[in-house]
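It is worth pausing here to work through a concrete case rather than discussing structure prediction in the abstract. The textbook approach is simple: state the sequence, then state the predicted structure, then interpret. We follow exactly that order.
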Amino acid sequence: MILERERERERARERERERERERERERERERERERERGRERQRETEREREREREREREREREREREREREREREREREREFVCVY
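Step two, the predicted structure:
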């Protein structure tokens, strides 16, 4: 009888240890999910920075094209001026 109660208590302790191990595994999974969310936020931030760099490069190309058009208009005015005189 005493032995049976002792075995039952030991089984109860083992079940509690198993529940605690499962809770720890769940906490670890949650930490891993949080780390992954952090990595994803970091990747998204880097993608946004790259998009902004690309937009800036495009604006610079557009400014260069505008400068080239202005130079061409200036050359055209000089040619017209030379032709007139």
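Step three, interpretation. The CA atoms of residues 55 and 61 lie 10 Å apart. DSSP finds one helix and no strands in the chain.
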